[in-house]
Amino acid sequence: MSREHPHPHAAPLRAAELTRRVRQVELAISWVLRIGVIVSVLVIGVGLLLMFLHHPEQARLWDDGSNYHALVQPDAYFPHSMAQLRAALAAGAGSGVVVLGVLLLILTPVLRVAVSVLSFVYERDMPMVLVTLFVLTVLVLSFVLA
Amino acid sequence: MTLLAFVLSLGVISIAAGALGSLVGLGGGVLIVPVLVRFYDVDIRLAIGASIVSVIATSSGAAAAYVRDEMTNLRAGMFLEIATVTGAVTGGYLTTLLPARFLYILFGVVLAYSALATYRHRHATALLSHSDDRLANYFNLHGHYRDEAEHRDYDYKVKNTWIGLAMMYVAGMVSALLGIGSGALKVPAMDLAMHLPMKVSTATSNFMIGVTAAASAGMYFERGQIDPVIAAPVAIGVLLGSMFGARYLGRATNKGVRLLFVVVLIAVAAEMLQRGVMG
């Protein structure tokens, strides 16, 4: 975004070179987001498919005998720790694969911030490197502390 | 209703939520939660977990296009994320201290006020060509965007960065406390306080809400609030909807986006106030 106004504190990069790098960075960040989104949609889709393959009685549109309701109540069981997720994946459970896909989706913005840190190193913009590094640290801590 | 019917119908509703959310810079969670609770009788805690997933999906799905099309102010967005992630982590610890009803009422009132303020500024288009804001100047948060509706390029300056940071900190706390992206607070912080163009504000809010939500997503996962049966159709639907919605922001007018934002804000404020008052 800084094409006309190169950062006053950045190490000397010629304006044309900075413009080129800023654009490369924009495309890289856009690409990271797109890959994260596509991979998580695919994994979640496979998980859903597995869920219905393992429980064919649920894969009908009209049937009074089966109901989704119990699966969305407080006592519904699904993996919610890394150990449970590993167990669910080892058992080939569809719900485990869906949770894995959702975790990949959650990690996409974190990966985007990590790429941003590198991007600002590439743009030789120290203040913004520190800003994004701070954001990344808080994000990683939030996962470690959770 | 069978599980397949639940997954398919929720997926379709999520497409609509993702498209609307990507246009106005909100996560779509505030639209998904009432549907889940009222229509599908989903437990509120699980609905909030799905909301966090929806926010991240809207953000990543739309931001890929907005960043490529240079609608987003990346520098301002990343700078303001300092405040949103810090707020989100603080908010995670406050959940046990503050009663949810009080939060809903407070948030409802704040949203109603920002709807009013945005409506009163609906004609404002003047962009700043000069800024004395030292923080904005030091980090060079000023920007440039191409308006596809007017076929013109604009340069704009940013001011009131400290006010923006303060509002973003609150937005981060609210996000962790209520499981939403709180774009409803981020957009006015940039549009009204910092003088970013409206379309840049919603695109940048979109860019930021994913990171804000990710900062509390780990907590929601550990607490067992991310139910795969709900998260799967919401994630896929919202992602498709947001990629679709992102194609239209460029061609919309700033005033049109503001009015749409006000309408959505009023609906959300009513929802929050009702949840707070009814309990």
3D structure, described in words:
The complex is a heterodimer of chains A (146) and B (279). Chain A is an all-alpha fold and 146 residues long. Chain A has one domain (15-58, 78-145). Chain A has four helices and no strands. The radius of gyration of chain A is 22 Å and the shape is elongated. In chain B, 74% of the residues lie in helices and 4% in strands. With 279 residues, chain B is mostly helical. Chain B has helices at residues 3-24, 29-39, 44-68, 74-94, 100-120, 134-138, 161-178, 183-193, 198-222, 228-249, 254-278, and strands at residues 143-147, 152-156. Chain B has one domain. The mean pLDDT of chain B is 88.
Count of alpha/pi helices of chain B: 11
Mean pLDDT of chain B: 88
Unreliable sequence segments of chain A: none
Q: Which regions of chain B are unreliable across 5 or more consecutive residues at pLDDT < 50?
A: none
Radius of gyration of chain A, whole Å: 22 Å
Shape of chain B: globular
Present the secondary structure layout.
The complex is a heterodimer of chains A (146) and B (279).
Chain A: H1 15-54, H2 82-90, H3 94-122, H4 126-145
Helix pairs in contact in A: 1-3, 2-3, 3-4
Chain B: H1 3-24, H2 29-39, H3 44-68, H4 74-94, H5 100-120, H6 134-138, E1 143-147, E2 152-156, H7 161-178, H8 183-193, H9 198-222, H10 228-249, H11 254-278
Antiparallel strand pairs in B: 1-2
Attribute tags:
heterodimer; B: 11 helices; 74% helix
How would you summarize this macromolecular structure in one to three sentences?
The complex is a heterodimer of chains A (146) and B (279). Chain A has 146 residues and is an all-alpha fold.
